[in-house]
Structure formats: structure tokens, C-alpha cells
Amino acid sequence: MTEHGAHHDHDHDHERTVAPMVDEITDFEVLEVALRELCIEKGIFTAAEHRQFTEFAEQIGPAPAAHLVARAWLDPEFKALALAEPMSASKEVGVDWMEPTGFGTPSDFTAFQILEDTPNLHNVIVCALCSCYPRPILGNSPEWYRTPNYRRRLVRWPRQVLAEFGLYLSDDIEVRVQDSNQKHRFMVMPMRPEGTEDWTEDQLAEIVTRDSLIGVALPKPGVTTNVITDTRPAVHPIPDRP
């Protein structure tokens, strides 16, 4: 093999094995960039305002919602406020749905409802159309919440999907699926578990996980993470579009 030939083969191998710097851009990402640039060009918001909101969205999480539920478990008056005026109750735990822009995001705050679980009723939220989610109080939605397998299947086979998360409910408990849309957002207020009678708000808030606020898990003493265990494969999977 000549020196030139060896050099040529080396280049060919290099080109074949180098991975792209970024994954393929989706149609939604292209649309987002185009819409963002158009809004900035038209003066709807500035690039600095967009960066401020993005940084705000990335740092929020479910801790305020957990404290809201924990406080409601301890204070009947606050619980009544949370169920009747959830946006006012949100402010009591440090979440103002009008911040940080000062004018809010209509699709996020115009209609927010807290759903109370009872011994005979279990609520679970989904957005069957896309991935609407109460971000100001729960933070960004988990990846599985946005997948077609969760969105499309939960409304058809809710008990099976909950079982795949490790949540098995008896037949005498009604499972109510609340479907978010452009203007409505939901959050679940799960029931207070037994064995927590003398706990403080901070102790209770630790066991109110993001998944229990969505409705795919129940608060349990000792469970303070959102790691999902005891899962099993889907019986009726819906494949993603290519």
C-alpha cells in the first residue's frame, strides 16, 4: 500500500466515525427559533427578556408545590384557599404566576386548578394534545410526560399506565384523568399518608414528590426522590413517529 493510499484510508475512517456535534433539529425546534426571532423583530419582547424568562424557567422546580400541599395538610383554612383560589395560595408559598415578565404567560396562568384526591378518587394529569404543564409551580415537565406513550395511553388505559409507574389502585377507587389544554393547568393534591401525624411542614414537603403532584405516585414516608421504580413494559405501546 502506498503512503498516499494509507493516508486516504485514514481520512475515510475518520469521516466515517466522527459523530455530529448536535442531534438532528426537529420541526418544533425550527418553529420555535422562527417564532422567537419574529417576536423579537416585532417588539413583542426583547432578547434580554426572553433570556430572563428562560433562566427563570430552568431554575424553578416542584418544591413550592410540595410546601403548598404540606401546608394544606396541616391547615384546613389554607387548604380551602388552595382549592378555591389556587393562584392566591401559590403566592403564599412564593410563586407569583405573573413573574418574572410582569404580564405573565396566558397559557400558564389563566386557569389553574388544584385537584384533591379522596379515599374514593385519584386524580392524574396529562396533556393528550401536546405537553401543557403548570411550569410556574412544578417546574419543567419530565421527559416521559411529553412522550406519546404517556399522553395517548393514559386517557385510554389509565390504570395500566399507573401500574407501569408502580402505582396499583383498587377497583373501588375512581381514576379521573384531567386533560390540560391551552388555558387550563392542573396539579394534584394527594392525600396525606398515615404515619405522618406529628410531622412538620418541612418534613411533609419532603415526601410530596413531583410524581405525586402529577398523580403517577403517592406520597410515602421515606420516599423523597422522584426516581421511578417497579416499572414494567407497556402492553399497548404507541411508537413515536419517525
UniProtKB/TrEMBL annotation:
InterPro entries: CN_Hdrase_a/SCN_Hdrase_g_sf, CN_Hdrtase_a/SCN_Hdrlase_g, CN_Hdrtase_asu/SCN_Hdrlase_gsu, Thiocyan_Hydrolase_gsu
Metal-binding is among the record's keywords: yes
One function term, GO molecular function aspect: transition metal ion binding
Superkingdom of source: Bacteria
Keyword annotations from UniProtKB, A to Z: Hydrolase, Iron, Metal-binding
Pfam families: NHase_alpha
Positions annotated to bind Fe(3+): 127, 130-132
NCBIfam families: thiocyan_alph (TIGR03887)
Similarity field: Belongs to the nitrile hydratase subunit alpha family.
Name by which UniProt lists this protein: Thiocyanate hydrolase subunit gamma
Protein's organism: Mycolicibacterium frederiksbergense
